[in-house]
């Protein structure tokens, strides 16, 4: 789905399948979001579980 593997914005570690991540993003103003992965990749910042626990 992703062309480039998503990365943590803090440590730049690649996010692997089934990793627990946190996403910082604005609540969407549109309705009917169907392409969730694409929307998260375009609008969100991924934070891995280790970096989230530190902050």
- Percentage of residues in helical conformation: 25-40%
* Basic shape: globular
Strand order of the largest sheet: 1-2
What is the rounded Rg? 12 Å
- The pLDDT mean sits at 88
What is the count of helical runs? 2
Structural class: alpha+beta
Give the total of beta strands.
2
Strand content: 5-15%
Largest sheet: 2 strands, antiparallel
H and E string: EHEH
Oligomer: single chain
Structure in words:
By secondary structure, the protein is of the alpha+beta class. The protein has one domain (1-55). The radius of gyration is 12 Å and the shape is globular. It is built from two helices and two strands, in the order βαβα.
Task: Summarize this structure as a short list of keywords or feature phrases.
about 25% helix, 2 helices, 2 strands, alpha+beta, about 55 residues
In short:
By secondary structure, the chain is an alpha+beta fold. Helix content is 25%, strand content 15%.
């Amino acid at each position: 789905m992703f062309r480039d593997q998503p990365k943590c914005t803090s440590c730049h570690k690649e996010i692997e399948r089934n990793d627990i991540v946190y996403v910082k993003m604005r609540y969407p103003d549109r309705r009917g979001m169907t392409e969730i992965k694409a929307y998260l990749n375009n609008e969100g910042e991924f934070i891995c579980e280790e970096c989230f626990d530190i902050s």
